Design the sequence.
């Protein structure tokens, strides 16, 4: 058996290798071409993530419908009826559900990708594949959840619409693919940053869930932006998720603070992350 010495890179280049693994030399070298070559592996991971999540449950995928309904009911009782928080004249159940659907997708992407290195250490140590394959598969598998919960939202929308509620579709509804892309990019970016830090600082593993909960209360999920006092409005303005939630509500409910400059801010924030 003939073994090539690793100390002579030029001799390696002369061979007809299928793949040469080298260290990254540029910040923007994301090796997306390699990710595309491993697209079959991404589809396998997507199937694995979705199937394993509900494999040993009684209700299975029904939890995708039960969870947002229960969350919205709790918000309606506590924040809508007890705390008397305004909803810009929108039906309370529909208002809270509109925020929960997109936020759940973002939080699931963030928490899922933040566990990339810890959950897949046994794979990374055995075989090579682009590391972006794992977090990208998590983002795609969560799209299935988002599609089901969005269908649930539209079912409630139709019920309230034909019941005479003051809701309407606007042209901002066509921005839905962009909103999903922004949420996916933000969740993927923040999750990758956290996953790289948790390899050394495992404390972050416990802070992720707590931090996401705090972030939710700093985002207009259970309250509209119009109800925020002026001195605290800057908190909502610097939050890159706020324009996405507000645009979604403007598109499907006809109430909210939507504008292209605000979405451009979220897009710029996503690219930097």
Sequence:
């Amino acid at each position: 058996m003939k073994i090539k010495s690793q100390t002579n890179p030029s001799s390696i280049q002369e061979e007809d290798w299928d793949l040469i693994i080298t260290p990254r030399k540029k910040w923007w070298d994301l090796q997306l071409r390699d990710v595309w070559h491993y697209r079959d592996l991404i589809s396998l991971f997507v199937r694995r993530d979705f199937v394993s999540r509900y494999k040993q449950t009684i209700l299975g995928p029904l939890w995708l419908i039960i969870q947002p309904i229960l969350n919205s009911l709790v918000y309606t009782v506590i924040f809508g009826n007890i705390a008397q928080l305004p909803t810009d004249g929108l039906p309370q159940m529909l208002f809270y559900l509109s925020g929960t659907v997109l936020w759940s997708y973002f939080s699931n992407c963030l928490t899922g990708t933040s566990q990339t290195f810890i959950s897949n250490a046994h794979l990374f140590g055995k075989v090579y594949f682009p590391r972006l394959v794992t977090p990208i598969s998590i983002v795609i598998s969560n799209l299935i959840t988002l599609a089901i919960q969005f269908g649930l939202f539209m079912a409630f929308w139709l019920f309230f619409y034909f019941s005479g509620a003051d809701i309407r579709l606007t042209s901002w509804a066509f921005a839905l693919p962009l909103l999903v892309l922004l949420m996916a990019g933000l969740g993927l970016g923040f999750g990758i940053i956290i996953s790289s830090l948790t390899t050394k600082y495992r404390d972050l593993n416990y802070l992720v869930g707590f931090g996401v909960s705090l972030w939710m209360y700093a985002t207009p999920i259970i309250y509209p932006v119009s109800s925020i006092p002026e001195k605290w409005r800057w908190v909502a303005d610097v939050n890159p998720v706020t324009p996405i939630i507000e645009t979604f509500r403007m598109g499907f409910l006809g109430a909210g603070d939507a504008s292209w400059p605000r979405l451009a801010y979220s897009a710029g924030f996503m690219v930097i992350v």
